[in-house]
């Protein structure tokens, strides 16, 4: 629903209004809501289904915003809100809550679902001082371990300096290539944040086609997220102050500039605002791409093959690289091209 709704956001419909209502502590669905949604979708066109998805999502957003305001009325002295639950995997709803005037600051965790809630409860009950939890909690691999895997696979590769490996990636991106980016500790949570990512040039003419057809094998109307330097995001997009975990939707100010990554003329974009908490090499990649093109932003999707989980190890990365339409693989300072 989220992907369809992103094509035509902020659509309202009275039919969606009757399906959902709020109670004191949550949302109530009409008893026959699944059948009514199926009936509304019917044999409608793709655009009609997108509008229906957007209407349902908008209705949930309206009720969620009302609910957040009721929370603030109950807790008038609290100005900061942390949300949790799988509902907050939805970037449109996260944006609605952040845009609400109920709380001065809204925090959406790295992984707001059950796993994140479990970790949050443990941290809350611990006696340790509170501190920000990094999203990069997964395995990491030393250069020696990466080299051993490459040699074991009998592959030809280039070993480059930090600057040269970034420059090779930027050169490929400017030519419209898909670049797999594998660096340091793996992300924990639902989003690729620059450690296990596939990146693309958002200004390349066939960005969406390459990602949907040759890589992810998705429907042609699917859109992708962008990662960009936080200092540049609001020059080109309207949205929340920050989205460090790729958790919010933004509206392009100049749709023509980003036409190659917009699946519709009204689509919003999920954005990842990259600050000093991101992997240093990913920051360097964005900075170098920005110096080369004028805009430090890249399409960023998870490094995985069709219907597969995100890669973890160098061997995973090599297998997906050779099994998909990725053009260049950068494993730290090791670079492999097709």
Please provide a written account of the structure.
This protein has 338 residues and is of the alpha+beta class. It folds into two domains: 2-125, Nucleotidyltransferase, domain 5 (2-Layer Sandwich), CATH 3.30.420.40; 143-337, DHBP synthase. Helix content is 39%, strand content 16%. The protein starts with a helix and ends with a strand.
Under CATH, the homologous superfamily of the largest domain reads Carbamoyltransferase, C-terminal domain
Count of helical regions? 12
Q: Could you estimate the helical fraction of the residues in percent?
A: 25-40%
Query: Uncertain runs with pLDDT below 50, 5 residues or more?
Result: none
Class based on secondary structure composition and strand pairing:
alpha+beta
For the record, the CATH class of the largest domain is: Alpha Beta
Determine the N-to-C terminus distance.
36 Å
Rg, rounded, reads 21 Å
CATH topology label of the largest domain: DHBP synthase
Mean of pLDDT = 93
Helix and strand succession? HHEEHHEHEHHEHEEHEHEEEHEHEE
Largest sheet: 10 strands, mixed
Strand content: 15-25%
